[in-house]
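Recall that a protein's primary structure is simply its ordered list of amino acids. Everything else, from secondary elements to tertiary packing, is in principle encoded there. The following example makes that idea concrete.
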Amino acid sequence: MAPPERSLDPVVSAILPHGADRAAPFLLMRDAVLSYGEVDDQADALAASLANLGVGKGDRIAVVLPAWPEFAVTVFAAARLGAVVVPLNPRATRPELRYMLRHSGAVCAVSAEDAYGIDYLQCFEDFLVELPELQYLVTVGEEDLWYDDRIFQWEDVVSAGRGRDFTASPMSPDDPFAILYTSGTSGKPKGVELSHRNLLHAASATTDAAGIAPGDVVVGINALHHAFGLGPGLLGTALGGGSLVLQGDSEGADTLALAERHGATVLYGVPTLFATILRAIDHGAVAPHTVRLCLASGAPAGDVLARRIEASFHAPLIIAYSLTEGASTLAVGRPEDPPGKRLFTVGRPIRDTVVRVTDDDGAALPPESVGEIRVRGPGMMRGYHRQPRETAASLDADGFLRTGDIGMVDEEGCLHLLGRREDVVMRGGVDVHPREVEDRLMAHPAIDRAVVVGVSDEILGEAICACVVRVEGGLVTEQEVREWSAATLAEYKVPDLVSFIEELPLTESGTVWRQELARRVSSGRLDLSGGEAHTPA
């Protein structure tokens, strides 16, 4: 099966195979397997039922699911309808979900009934009243309840659509296909609009680098709402004709067990996942001998971690540079690269993608120069949904995306990722914007000032450190700071480390000197007046 990206019509609805390949295994769960044909048939049935409800081209379908097979089926059903899929983090808070559903204009949602201790049924019963554009809900779970004519159970919808004809909408590769939410500079979610071409370009380039082919089994994807999970994970595996292991938020031991059970050949993951895998191996777990390649994405991989991965799996590790605005992969290493390039760079730009390193004024710098990374290519987003000014501000005069990352391109064309221009903390492969956390902390009556910085952490890549100045006479403990944060922030935004200090270091202009603060936290010399530092939880 030739990757559609290389055809004249790279659209998601064209990538599932026909003929004998339909019998090949596609989605692997702990105790079940779905073939390409079964996913294809379920997607057709779901699309037919949704079309009967009036869902069609350009309509937004929100997906609030863990990495379950229903997520994949919904993606391919949306593609047949010409609809736009809106994958949302199922761990998002209720206010975050409400905002993203409203902002995207979702007319239909496919959601778990409950997961992670969240009662989504109750949430969506309220959302259906509060959000006029949201008309229908399809629930996935074990409940056998009767609802009105706007709430349906998954099995009923799929069953009702089997054998039902519907008219598939004609699509262009440049039509929008997904809106993925990522935080902006203010910490507020921004919807990244990606076309069929955007997603399939990045997915197929990653698949090519990893050499995914029929017979390969990919493990390590535990979230499909991210650009990498949706693109290279789900769509990329389908492009290569391989099988994808679906897993929950599994850590190292569970991932190794799934890899062993299914004979995994390729291990994808953020450095956090690899770190927990190595910890499991240290405690007696065994790395499957079937793994031929590891690929890390989502956060920088440290030198020690990278070398240990290769030593543990006796397989090469390649590293990818990924951005949501670039539909995931922008640059990636190759297994045949020498270790010095493979382990300590993020490889070379993917095909037809140009990486430019610039000075502060946007002028291109020569090789071996350090500056801001800017990129242009087929994977670049259509723009931020309903935010034309934000979209314009993200691009320079030549149409290059300002990534905000600092890097260097060496003489061999390999990209070195050195840091971030903005103060974003990349925790476990997920961006956390300090301002959002700081605003919550400073709402506490005992906290006068709070500054959030990222500090290097072998497990998380970067840990979130809250540097807190108490009000005079104020009493607040580390545990209380975390509980206060967790009341309104998503779990991954809650500080890992809390340091109480008397004053914040300032620059000559009077602003907080974040780099110095982070340096003091990392060195254990946070404060000259006896501030307390605590290790990450």
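Confidence is low (pLDDT under 50) at residues 1-8, 525-537. The CA atoms of residues 30 and 258 lie 7 Å apart.
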